[in-house]
UniProtKB/TrEMBL annotation:
Protein name: DUF3566 domain-containing protein
Species per Swiss-Prot/TrEMBL record: Methanosarcina barkeri (strain Fusaro / DSM 804)
Keywords of this entry: Membrane, Transmembrane, Transmembrane helix
Transmembrane segments: 12-33, 45-67
Amino acid sequence: MMRITSLNSMSLAKVLSLMYLCFAIIFSPLILFTVSMDGIGLTESIFVTVFLIVFYGIAGAIAGFLIGTIYNIVAKQVGGIEIDT
């Protein structure tokens, strides 16, 4: 039995940032379609879509760092997560 007692917060931030970025890119046509339904121009729709893709990547990095930091604090008190091998 193994126990995860700490996580590298920066590593988790990088992984979640890339995951959120990939999801945003996958769903970008839907985002572009939804934004363009508001009646704004194509240029503004593309700008909003690119902004949301970048925002999701940054939000993933921040979330990953916070999750890793909070997990490390809680794992010190509780003992971490046990994994069967």
